[in-house]
């Protein structure tokens, strides 16, 4: 599956303050996962993914601020613990694809921080 997103920013006092990935509606749970979990726990999540992909662990289950995730060798289940009734509350993503998306987010975040430090944005 293709996970399309747009890079968006939250602004404070007219300045870009926070970068986030806004995924399309049908994969919107990923937006919540990235803003609630990846922002805070990206190193841990990447370590968990690597433990599974390297077969050191069969799977890893974890829960964060907004979501629960269960990382398997082929797929990762992400559940939005606070989804509104009647809205999708979970998504399954290929584990290797999730790793790729997190790596892209880290690269975008690092570039944003660099540009902000230089006063370019």
From TrEMBL:
Q: Which domain of life is it from?
A: Bacteria
**Could you identify this protein by its name?**
Uncharacterized protein
Q: Which organism is it from?
A: Hallerella succinigenes
